[in-house]
Write a structure and sequence with these properties.
Keywords: Membrane, Transmembrane, Transmembrane helix. The protein has 69 residues and is mostly helical. Helix content is 70%, strand content 9%.
């Protein structure tokens, strides 16, 4: 029962983080450093690249896993 709950919690947290990044305009670009946060108002190009990459991962990884079986 708990094993089935873990992927659902991970999915919920990833989608929530993605929505919050779009809403606030601050993208998380990597590990915690001084350059890990990218602000949409200051650097729109890198922000949208990060969001496009995260969209690809958010949709692409589950699709690949679904077709792997």
């Amino acid at each position: 029962m708990d094993v089935d709950l873990v992927p659902a919690c991970l999915c919920f947290s990833v989608v929530l983080t993605y929505i919050l990044q779009l809403w606030t305009g601050i993208a998380i670009a990597g590990w915690p450093t001084e350059k890990s946060l990218v602000y949409r108002s200051k650097k729109p190009g890198p922000y949208w690249f990060i969001m496009a990459f995260q969209t690809l991962v958010l949709i692409g990884v589950p699709v690949l896993l679904a077709f792997a079986d």
